[in-house]
Write a structure and sequence with these properties.
This protein has 488 residues and is α+β, with helices and mostly antiparallel strands. The protein is 39% helix and 19% strand. Bound molecules: adenosine-5'-diphosphate (ADP) and magnesium ion (MG).
């Protein structure tokens, strides 16, 4: 089922459909690089994590890192994809100063992972399947720094040789919204299984965005590719700009040139970088330094059995076992840390109440402080304790919100705050009766209105007065019951 609305874009001469395929580069979370023992730690001094292999010294031999292979297999399994027990590393020839070998070791015709599928989730609860064409292993290049010196370019080879998984989608997406949902889902999956940290700001996940347009029902149009986009928002903006640009050209009677374009996030536009290379331009050939990669199916089975619960399974379980709406479940499983937090809060408590507290109150408070759930000042146990205080009538839902605000500031336990601030709910009917008697005595007009039945809302006014008199601490159920008795 698609997002339930038409994704067509209106042009001057009729409707157009956007077609999007994404190539995601996800850096594997491994200690060492794909073919060398150098460290992959982010943020080190330039050129301090470079082995002789990464610097492409003559005669050095690459040796494959088993951990990287393992993470690629796990990711393939999490994408529901075909795992190829036999795959081949090729040399993809091109020259950049930050690629000292003069070629990148990649996989071309025989990748480690073949076809798969992922399910996109939309906020309205609808879903859509997108095909994965392949996942292959390859080396990352180093970095050229053009802004360090007026006339020279500096090279940092720390990233050279770091393991990347390139995940290639089928051209199945039809809007910027769907592309955003796809990138979020890939990020969620790799984070769940820990094969990549999914950090787009630090560049450990980046996307090449392929966009074409066509009339609905026609063959695929010619595509342009925007490379190395490092935020979901930028990817969506690039798609919207690019689709409009192509539609305008076609409606003017022009044709689209297949090319690589750059997305300029400051100007919000795409520009030509270079015309598109074809696979034969790279003169791919099997890397003679590396044997084909072969492993047993039994290893794949073992890795499959050890995978943690995946986001789709978790979402389905929250909906089926806890009766959560798809919207809530989708948000709660979007990050493994959120899911873990929620499951502690919800354990032995009302699932929907727990979901509301996490999604509404906790997220708003964390947002306001610019914090993520991992550094939440309120632990999941404490949030659970707060819910317990409402459930056992120690405090009202109203007062709980105040207590929560204090918890966010002090990280104190809710029971301590309730005790210190004297916020315990007044369930003692004697005390409530006293307040009601006083209010009735002070407000004869409202009493008459109630008795005459002319204003049915006046009972609400009385409840409000009692709550005010009790500083919000009177038990609302008791107040209602006693008021009705006293007013007759
Ligand atoms: P390359 O490796 O040269 O970039 P691929 O054939 O592997 O080319 O395709 C790269 C990406 O482009 C894939 O994600 C694919 O889905 C997407 N793609 C292919 N054709 C189109 C098209 N006409 N419009 C949009 N995306 C496309
Ligand atoms: Mg490409």
């Amino acid at each position: 089922m698609s997002a339930g609305k038409s994704n067509l874009i209106a042009g001057a001469t009729g409707d157009w459909e956007v077609v999007i395929g994404l190539e995601v580069h996800a850096q594997i979370s491994s200690e060492a690089k794909l073919f060398s023992g150098a460290s992959t730690k982010f943020g080190a001094e330039p050129n301090t994590q470079v082995s002789l292999v990464d610097a492409a010294m003559p005669g050095m031999l690459p040796v494959i890192n088993r951990e990287c292979v393992k993470q690629a297999i796990r990711t393939g399994l999490a994408l529901g994809a075909q795992i190829n027990c036999y795959s081949v590393f090729d040399r993809k020839n091109y020259f950049y100063a930050d690629l000292p070998q003069g070629y990148q070791i990649s996989q071309f015709k025989q990748p480690i992972v073949g076809k798969g599928t992922i399910t996109l989730d939309f906020l309205d609860g609808s879903t859509k399947e997108v095909g994965i064409e392949r996942l292959h292993l390859e080396q990352d290049a180093g970095k050229s720094l053009h802004d360090q010196h007026p006339t020279m370019t500096y090279i940092d080879l720390n990233r050279s040789g770091v393991a990347l998984m390139e995940i290639v989608s089928d051209p199945d997406m039809r809007s910027a919204e769907e592309a955003g949902a796809y990138l979020r889902k890939i990020r969620t999956i790799v984070r769940y299984i820990g094969s990549c940290d999914g950090n787009m700001e630090q560049g450990s996940m980046r996307a090449d965005v392929n966009v074409s347009v066509r009339r609905p029902g026609e063959e695929l149009g010619t595509r342009c590719e925007m490379k190395n986009i490092n935020s979901i928002r930028f990817a969506q903006q690039a798609i919207e700009y690019e689709a409009r640009r192509q539609i305008d050209i076609l409606e003017d009677g022009g044709t689209i040139k297949q090319e690589t374009r750059l997305y300029d996030s400051v100007l919000g536009e795409t520009r030509t970088m270079r015309s598109k290379e074809e696979a034969h331009d790279y003169r791919y050939f099997p890397d003679p330094d590396l044997l084909p990669l072969e492993f047993e199916q039994s290893w794949v089975d073992e890795l499959a059995a050890e995978l943690p619960e995946l986001p789709d399974d978790k979402k389905n379980r929250l909906m089926a076992d806890l009766n959560l709406p798809s919207y809530d479940a989708g948000i709660l499983v979007s990050e493994p840390e959120i899911a873990t937090y929620y499951e502690v809060v919800a354990k032995g408590r009302d699932a929907k109440t727990a979901a509301n507290w996490v999604i509404t109150n906790l997220f708003a408070a964390l947002n306001a402080q610019g914090k993520s759930i991992t550094d939440s000042p309120v632990s999941p146990d404490q949030l659970g304790q707060l819910i317990d205080l409402i459930t056992d009538d120690t405090i009202s839902g109203r007062i709980a919100k105040d207590v929560f605000e204090v918890m966010i500031k002090t990280s104190d336990d809710p029971a301590k705050i309730v005790e210190e601030k004297g916020l315990k709910q007044i369930t003692d009917t004697g005390a409530i009766e006293g307040m009601i008697d006083q209010i009735i005595a002070d407000n004869p007009d409202q009493v008459t209105q109630y008795a005459g039945g002319e204003n049915p809302k006046v009972i609400g006014w009385f409840v409000g007065q009692v709550m005010k008199a009790s500083q919000g601490k009177a038990n609302p159920g008791a107040v209602n019951k006693l008021l009705k008795e006293k007013l007759g």
